[in-house]
Amino acid sequence: MKNYKNFCLTAGVIIILLITFLLLPSLNVKAKEEPKWCPLCGMNLKMYHQTSNRLTYSDGTKDQTCSIFCAAQLYEKRPTEIDRWEVVDYETKGWIDARKAKWLIESDIPGVMTAVSKLAFSSLEDAKKYQKKHGGKIGTFDDALNRTLSDMGSDRKMIMARVAEMAKMGKDLAGKQGCYKCHGEEGKGGSASGWNTPAFSKKMDTRVKIKEAITKGCPGMPGHDGKIDEKGLHAITLYIWSLRPMK
After folding, report:
1. How many CB atoms neighbour CB 41 within 10 A?
2. DSSP characters for 104-124?
3. Cα–Cα distance measured from residue 69 to residue 111, given in angstroms and rounded to the nearest whole number
4. Buried b / exposed e across 23-36, counting CB within 10 Å, b at 16+?
5. Could you tell me how far CA 100 lies from the centroid of its own chain?
6. C-alpha–C-alpha distance, residues 23 and 58, integer Å
7. Which of 168, 139, 152 lies closest to 113, judged by CA?
């Protein structure tokens, strides 16, 4: 009887240890945070989820963009390194293989970062449904990518004009938010670094880094997360970005 009790006690301890061992990884490993902004243009990825693209490279790294326009720019830099190209299904809002998707091109649905919209669908029926209502033509991934690349020059001109308008708004908003109290009038420098200095430009070399500094804060500056809406945040970011010294 005594041996049986010892056996049960030992077995119970082993079971508890096994359960604890199995639970520890799930408790300690944190899920990787999804990117918040497009690494190229800095636009909010949740706001442009339906047109988002995601590239997985041969080294295992990934980039998620707001549109095929921004993804195409990454493709131009690393054309042979993309192992997987995903896009969000415009109808289901789930991720699908961009190369196998049916693409609706030139519909009257506004494009993201481009004058000509390019929307992806896993189902041909869904693509035809949108085509019937919004026009356009159904094509392949290569059709969508080639059109994006061919329109890159004209789209950039359009984007530059829009960015200039947003930057003007950002200049006014930066004043209203009290940014110039530390960064100087028009961000030219004060008790905090100027936005137009080489040192600042080197440290804040992407729009995403600027947005993270504004929202999360940095030494000497509190974060403004929740105090500025996304449109205002983007406008201020574009204004700060516009002050970078010309190379």
Report:
1. 21
2. EES-SSPPSSSSS-EEEES-H
3. 10
4. eeeeeeeeeeeeee
5. 23
6. 32
7. 152
Give residue 225's identity as a one-letter amino acid code. Answer: D
Contact 62, 54 (CB under 8 A): yes
- Burial profile 48-87: b = 16 or more Cβ within 10 angstroms, e = fewer: bebbbbbbeeeeeeebbbbbbbbbbbbbeeeeeebeebbb
β-bridge mates for residue 195, sequence order: none
DSSP assignment of 181-222 equals HHH-GGGS-SSS--TTSHHHHHHS-SHHHHHHHHHH-BTTB-
Give the whole-angstrom CA distance, residue 25 versus residue 111: 43
Choose among 99, 85, 105: nearest CA to 150: 105
The DSSP code for 31 is: P
Strand order in the sheet with 53-57: 62-65, 53-57, 82-88, 95-97
Q: Convert 108-138 to b/e letters by CB count within 10 Å (16 or more is b).
A: ebebbbbebbbbbbbeeebbeebbeeeebeb
Q: Going residue by residue through the chain, which has 247 residues, state the pLDDT in tens, using 9 for 90 and above.
A: 445 445 444 544 354 444 444 444 444 434 456 799 999 999 999 999 999 999 999 999 999 999 999 999 999 999 999 999 999 999 999 999 999 999 999 999 999 999 999 999 999 999 999 999 999 999 999 999 999 999 999 999 999 999 999 999 999 999 999 999 989 888 888 888 888 888 888 999 999 999 999 999 888 888 888 889 999 999 999 999 999 887 6
